[in-house]
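Bench notes, bay 3.
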Amino acid sequence: MAPIKVGDVVPDGTISFFDENDQLQTVSVHSLAAGKKVILFGVPGAFTPTCSMKHVPGFIEKAEELKSKGVDEIICFSVNDPFVMKAWGKTYPENKHVKFVADGSGEYTHLLGLELDLKDKGLGVRSRRFALLLDNLKVTVANVESGGEFTVSSADDILKAL
């Protein structure tokens, strides 16, 4: 499947997360993003070094600034189960705006065309590192990393595009 790109409508699919009442929710991506400006940023794995120390903290630290520029939702996405994503989210007590969501089986990652094969590292098939800016489901920015790099998908990169 070809990677998602600017101009595409983001495919619909389901993702899971724990809501503010600690209830597991499985919802369609379209239900979360329709009619909104949304940042969907993906990471190869919860609790992994670059994801935990650089990628996620950048979006948490810049969340207010991103929201002041019209962003309605900031969603951190990974091929992990929702319990792992919930536990990972709790390691950022200062977080008020980033929603941690799970693509447990990698099906939505496949629909995006953003799979990263890390079987040789014992991690299976994961998501590439990326940051998408969606405006009413349409991709207006698609910053997708190569391999394990972290050069184009930061919160600062999205701020520059807003």
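Next record in the batch:
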Amino acid sequence: MPIDRMVDLSSRQLRRFPLHVCSFRELVKLYLSDNNLHQLPPELEQLQNLQILALDFNNFKVLPLVVCTLKQLCILYLGNNKLCDLPQELSLLQNLKTLWLESNCLSHLPEVVCELSLLKTLHAGSNALHTLPARLRCLQELRTIWLSGNLLADFPPVLLHMPFLEVIDVDRNAIRSFPSLAHLPGLKLIIYDHNPCRNAPKVAKGVRRVGRWAEETPEPRKRSELGREEETNGKEPPLPPNKQPQPC
């Protein structure tokens, strides 16, 4: 048994899980990142003290059900695999606080994620998500959600009903218009860059924005509106284009 109760087998070109690891019953951290694994043995269930499991950068098309028997897991890394869905048995991991799902093949966020009541951080970037389930609002402990690099055409409405969110990342999507986020009391950071947006999201004082027009107060207005106002007020002509806010 390693003294630090950790085994790191990352980047070993493993095709099979080494069964002798299952004899380390007190193991707390197991890193299997960057291998060629596509399945896990049922003997993994013996590691009931495991709190961190890293399976990212492998070849999993389906999450092995044995993972769902490890009920002490707090952090689960599943990024950069080939997952299209997650099993309902994932709901058994009620101690899970951080879940990494980035760079998989998810066209929807699996509903089972909404049953992970202690989840604080959700990484679901670089998938093919078009929307989020309404039940996500049940995750009252969720503080950070990363959704960059998906196919969101609209800002997910469910996020407007999650007042405890602190960080929202919707960078690199297809969102054209943002609703006001000023009513979210817990929000500290909104990242919305690289969207074809026509406006910046309104936020409360002290909230950091990362994206087009992020530093402007009040919100940027369309050039046509600026032009009409200037004509009405008899002011000087509009500034040259290189001095005007540019659309995304």
